[in-house]
């Protein structure tokens, strides 16, 4: 392929165009577009592993900063607690006459699923079908651990987005998850999570983390401390949508897809709005140049 075609495909990848649309824009085959998209993800993976080349990949949080953590099975239709809770925000209320609390949570969860499927073209159903129909070595499966650096409204207004990092993990044991937390979360940070037993020793780690939890079997948001995991849980739908849109080769390249999502979470800016509570973001207008600079820093001549 020509340099011009490679640059066009890179631009398309930066702005999340589908592989088919990228191939049409660059006047090349879908296979060639897939290859270039894969190379872009590998750049992210290499750069984020080198904090000199990518200083923005340093430790998350710090004194006075909040990190939300959670884990998710990417093959699951929807992450739920045992009784179906853990998905709704504090503003999602059910009418008390519609069954008991568990039944109300299930109804509300099903409604949320229907809304998300309508918005994303049955994303989660397709995700299961793709995994079940794929060859064994091409399945997107297993657990993913996520960390979200929550930003205040003032920080978001100044162009500082929530940063989200995802990591494929073999299991959800304390040894696995606590090691990732220590490697990516700065000492003194405040960490919010659910009550998964592997998180029980976070406050005892030498980094001096403050650890607060919400019991999803009782509340979506803790009524006293207001602790929740809404920000990181919201990231799971974006993760699934991304995995399903790509479809091809996700299982073999899952770690590179996760690196792409991490880097692109840093390339978001707030959407101007008169509503101070507006949390919408858009792709940074300089993302293409930022990525070319990332390439030059990661692979210096």
UniProtKB/TrEMBL annotation:
This is ISXO2-like transposase domain-containing protein. SMART domains: DDE_Tnp_IS1595 (SM01126). It comes from Plectus sambesii. Residues 83-106 are annotated as: Disordered. The lineage of its organism: Eukaryota, Metazoa, Ecdysozoa, Nematoda, Chromadorea. Residues 59-263 form the ISXO2-like transposase domain. Residues 1-24 form the signal peptide. The keyword Mitochondrion does not apply. It comes from the Eukaryota. Keywords: Signal. The keyword Signal applies.
């Amino acid at each position: 392929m020509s340099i011009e075609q490679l640059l066009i495909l890179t631009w398309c990848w930066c702005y999340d165009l589908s592989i088919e649309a990228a191939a049409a824009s660059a006047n090349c085959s879908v296979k060639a577009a897939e290859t270039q998209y894969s190379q872009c993800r590998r750049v992210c993976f290499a750069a984020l592993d080198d904090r000199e080349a990518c200083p923005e990949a340093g430790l998350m949080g710090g004194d006075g900063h909040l990190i939300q953590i959670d884990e998710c099975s990417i093959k699951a239709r929807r992450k739920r607690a045992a009784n179906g809770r853990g998905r709704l925000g504090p503003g999602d209320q059910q009418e008390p006459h519609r069954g008991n609390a568990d039944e109300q949570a299930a109804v509300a969860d099903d409604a949320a699923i229907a809304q998300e499927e309508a918005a994303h073209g049955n994303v989660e159903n397709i995700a299961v079908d793709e995994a079940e129909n794929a060859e064994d070595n091409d399945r997107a499966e297993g657990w993913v651990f996520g960390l979200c650096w929550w930003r205040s409204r003032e920080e978001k207004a100044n162009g500082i987005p929530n940063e989200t990092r995802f990591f494929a993990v073999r299991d959800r044991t304390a040894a696995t998850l606590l090691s990732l937390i220590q490697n990516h979360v700065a000492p003194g940070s405040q960490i919010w999570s659910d009550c998964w037993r592997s998180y029980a020793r976070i406050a005892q780690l030498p980094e001096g983390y403050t650890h607060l939890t919400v019991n999803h079997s009782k509340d979506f948001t803790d009524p006293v401390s207001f602790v929740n995991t809404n920000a990181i849980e919201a990231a799971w739908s974006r993760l699934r949508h991304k995995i399903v849109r790509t479809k091809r080769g996700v299982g073999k390249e899952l770690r590179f897809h996760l690196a792409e999502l991490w880097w692109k979470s840093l390339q978001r800016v707030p959407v101007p709005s008169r509503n101070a509570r507006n949390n919408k973001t858009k792709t940074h207008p300089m993302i293409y140049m930022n990525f070319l600079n990332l390439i030059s820093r990661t692979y210096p001549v």
